[in-house]
Specification:
Blueprint: H1 2-33, H2 40-47, H3 51-57, H4 61-75, H5 90-108, H6 110-115, H7 121-142, H8 149-157, H9 161-169, H10 174-190
Helix pairs in contact: 1-2, 1-4, 2-3, 5-7, 5-10, 7-8
């Protein structure tokens, strides 16, 4: 009986290792060529397994994308309200918010996700979730200051990965881009109409 239990445990460990390799292969391919361009065959080749093994673990391409997304979220969790702990001023809270989001975008290569949002519904779902998180985090940053809902949403829009990348394309560092956006948002929020 012990031998059978040992064999089952080894088989389960092997299956988990195969699944991990498949997710890692998916992640690498997404980074190299984009999500929409990645195929099950490429995943199998990268992971060193047969195509049937990929389908055994992930019956659909969406399943591979979901598993990859879950791995990324576990490895690089998005920033939380904890970044505002002990920070009383609006300006500093905004700077922490922008820096945290821009760093997150670099860690997860979110611009690659955005590039395929119109091609794959599951990717559009991830993009929508990121937007809702960004709005909620912006609301949390500005909660002590009674900022209008529309201004919160406008501020959150300025924190999009595409804004970050646009600023980096004009040779601003990530920190310089974050400081510029935080300053722009702050100036608008404290402006007297």
């Amino acid at each position: 009986m012990k031998r059978r239990a040992y064999q089952l445990k080894r088989r389960a460990e092997s299956a988990e290792e195969t699944r991990r390799r498949l997710v890692q292969a998916t992640f690498e391919l997404h980074g190299e060529q984009g999500i929409a361009a990645t195929t099950m065959k490429q995943i199998a080749e990268r992971a060193g397994v047969g195509i049937g093994t990929v389908y055994h673990h992930f019956p659909t391409l969406d399943d591979t994308i979901m598993a990859c997304g879950q791995m990324v979220m576990a490895t690089y969790p998005p920033p939380t309200e904890a970044i505002f702990a002990g920070v009383p001023t609006m300006k500093e809270r905004l700077l922490r918010l922008v820096r945290a989001l821009f760093e997150y975008y670099d860690n997860v290569a979110f611009d690659l996700v955005r590039a395929d949002e119109d091609r794959l519904p599951i990717v559009r779902t991830f993009v929508g979730e990121e937007l809702q998180h960004r709005i909620a985090l912006t609301r949390a940053a500005l909660a002590p200051f009674a900022i209008d809902r529309d201004l919160i949403r406008t501020s959150a829009a300025l924190l999009d990965v595409r804004v970050c990348r646009s600023l980096q394309q004009i040779d601003l560092t990530r920190d310089q881009a974050a400081e510029a956006i935080a300053e722009i948002i702050h100036a608008r929020l404290v402006r007297k109409d």
